[in-house]
Amino acid sequence: MNVRNTAAAQDGTTRSAIATGYMSGFGNGFETEALPGALPLGRNSPQQCAYGLYAEQLSGSPFTAPRTTNERSWLYRIRPTVAHWNTFRKVDTRLWRTAPAREVDMPIAPLRWSPIPIPSEPLSFVEGVHSITTAGDAGSQGGMGAHVYLITRSMVDEYFYNADGEMLFVPEQGSLRLWTEFGIIDIEPGEIAVIPRGVKIRVELTNGPARGYICENYGGAFTLPERGPIGANCLANPRDFLTPVAAYEDHDAPSKMYVKWGGNLWAADIAHSPLDVVAWHGNYAPYKYDLRRFSPVGPILYDHADPSIFTVLTSPSETPGTANIDFVIFSDRWLVAENTFRPPWYHMNVMSEFMGLVYGVYDAKTGGGFVPGGISLHNTMLPHGPDVAAFEKASTVELKPHKLEGTLAFMFETRFPQQVTAFAAQSEALQQDYGGYGHKLTKHFDPTKP
Ligand SMILES: O=C(O)Cc1cc(O)ccc1O
Ligand SMILES: [Fe+2]
Predict the structure, then answer these.
(1) Alpha-carbon distance 31 to 138, whole Å?
(2) Which member of 85, 234, 419, 449 has the greatest number of CB atoms within 10 A?
(3) Per-residue pLDDT averaged across 317-322, rounded?
(4) Is the distance from CB of 127 to CB of 163 less than 8 angstroms?
(5) Span 295-430: which CATH code?
(6) Which residues form the active site (predicted)?
(7) Is 378 annotated as a binding residue?
(8) What was the ipTM of the complex prediction?
(9) Which of 18, 20, 75, 374 lies closest to 196 in space, CA to CA?
(10) Taking residues 111-117, what's their average pLDDT?
């Protein structure tokens, strides 16, 4: 696919060739240019690039990774990244934490948080990441950070890239325009975006203040799960993933470049926008996906299947079948199973489960307390399951086909135990009484009634 897309600057001055549009497919080799002929034909590194551009390769995998996991793109840009460089100094990471970060010792218990309020103070994306848990070790390229973002101002002449991991954005309130080196991605609640490790961005608000979740993936890049006997279709279909067409800025202004590297945040003064990629090709690029396009597959006769059937994206580890992270959603679907307790069963899991809610009601927690913007954490081998309201209803209701509608919950599930940050442990949003919800499940046992 070769998308040519040249558009006039929207502010008529310094920000040039602003084009929005997407190319469809997951992990394709894409090619796109914002100026005709900017992309070299038949080679990556011509002696001289068109328009006086510099060629730069961005490698998301080792050079020698097998074909299925080999990821790299070629960027044709006004200046190479090294020319956007200056002396970096460490700045405050505020509430953004990186594994390993054992800040507090939490008692082992199910944990839940009410939505963290969006403050009135100005917070850019870089300033507004509030880490809730960390897992694994970013330096060993395994595990994740699970964060809530609270954004009240757009980044202006400020840019950021994350060397520690790729970032999966799950908006819950407000929409975002992610200006990336590769082009522009707009997302709103119900959609997600993935920004690969090392990709420069500027985050703008497009509809008031924003709140959402971020999974910072230190490990293997998110990919589509195997479908096994499900076959070639359903779940997240590759054609519904959208990667932006090239769009660049030729913008000189005193600016700040932020880099998250080794768990620290670094900042440097630069004189121009690094979002200056006029053309690119390759398979290492940001993308978005509308979660409402997910085609769930589930039990159509009896029983409740494992939640792995709702995996949208998975970050594999070296151990087969043992994900570094699974990103799983619980979205609109019909429940039809006969003689079945339909909500999630009571369980304990070697994987640890960070959950969030974008909208609606989650069917395991109908008794209130788990609301949009909220969080629950069911850590490694800690017991959990439906609250008493969900249990009572689901075990007595007449089992007609029933549609769960207007609901979108999700889970970042990782093989590693999750460490709660000091911020999350001390937050007023932490629900002190949640750990006791199991006590409301009373004894129904009667040896005389089989
Ligand atoms: O705990 C949860 O609510 C998430 C979940 C859902 C489900 O359907 C099965 C297992 C599971 O961990
Ligand atoms: Fe669970």
Answers:
(1) 31
(2) 419
(3) 95
(4) no
(5) 2.60.120.10
(6) 304
(7) no
(8) 0.99
(9) 75
(10) 98
What tokens appear for 38 in the block?
Answer: 């900017």
Mind telling me the catalytic residues?
304
Range name among 17-26, 46-55, 270-279 with the lowest pLDDT average: 17-26
For residue 19, the model assigns a pLDDT of 66
Q: What is the DSSP letter of 424?
A: H
Q: How far apart are CA 150 and CA 125, in angstroms?
A: 7
pLDDT digits (tens, 9 = 90+) for 374-409: 999 999 999 999 999 999 999 999 999 999 999 999
Q: What is the rounded CA–CA span in Å between residue 407 and residue 150?
A: 22
Q: 447: exposed, middle or buried (C-beta count within 10 Å: 0-12, 13-18, 19+)? A: exposed
Ligand 1 pocket: which residues have CB below 6 Å?
307, 344, 347, 349, 353, 364, 378, 384, 411
Both tokens of 212, joined, read 């959402």
Does 165 have pLDDT greater than 50?
Answer: yes
The span from the CA of 291 to the CA of 304, in Å, is 21
CA 344–ligand 1 middle distance (angstroms)? 5
Neighbouring-strand partners of residue 149: 129, 212
Burial of 10 (0-12, 13-18, 19+ CB in 10 A): exposed
Output the CA 371–ligand 2 centroid distance in Å. 17
For residues 98-106, average pLDDT: 96
Report the distance separating Cα 412 and Cα 311, nearest Å.
10
Ligand with the closest atom to the CA of 409:
1
Atom of ligand 1 minimally distant from the CA of 343 = 8
375 burial level (CB within 10 Å; 0-12, 13-18, 19+): buried
Residue indicated by tokens 């519904």 = 240
- For residue 20, name the pLDDT band (cuts at 50, 70, 90): confident
Mutate to test the pocket of ligand 1, among 311, 347, 362, 437 (most ligand atoms within 8 A of CB): 347
Mean pLDDT of the chain: 95
Residue identifier of the C-alpha nearest atom 8 of ligand 1: 344
CATH domain 2-291 topology? Jelly Rolls (2.60.120)
Cα separation of 144 and 414, whole Å? 8
**Of 411, 412, 413, which is best to mutate to test ligand 1, by the most ligand atoms within 8 angstroms of its C-beta?**
411
Question: Residue ranges per domain, the chain?
Answer: 2-291, 295-430
pLDDT tens digit sequence for 186-220? 999 999 999 999 999 999 999 999 999 999 999 99
Same fold, 2-291 and 295-430: yes
